[in-house]
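pasting for ref
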Amino acid sequence: NIICSIIFGDRFDYEDKKFRTLIELINENNKLQSAIQTQLYNFFPAVMDFLPGPHKKLIKNTEKVDQFTLEIIAEHQKTLDPTCPRDFIDAFLNKMEQEKGNGHSEFTVETLSRTTLDLFFAGTGTTSTTLRHGILILQKYPEIVG
């Protein structure tokens, strides 16, 4: 939720259905990334597009997460106050507006969506993994707790 506050400008209730679905999709993708078909997809996407496997589910999950992000971006575009950015998305949208006349600008909605997802995945994945390993170490060596 801290990452959500920085990126989306809002925290989600832990019982929020959309938020829980988002976390489930991310967790499922983390598991699917270790499948051999998914790893082969990274090297041979043209071939793997025609073959079944867990990489197809990973792609669908990523599209759903991307759609979630695009909905939040669209809402931010409607309520944007350029003089008072609320979060990362607003700051990026302000930069997009500044770069509007530049045909070579990398500040696009697509880039915003991908960057937002990268920040979200990086923040949630590393934090949860670090906490999980810390708890496991504490369980294995309870004497360091006291």
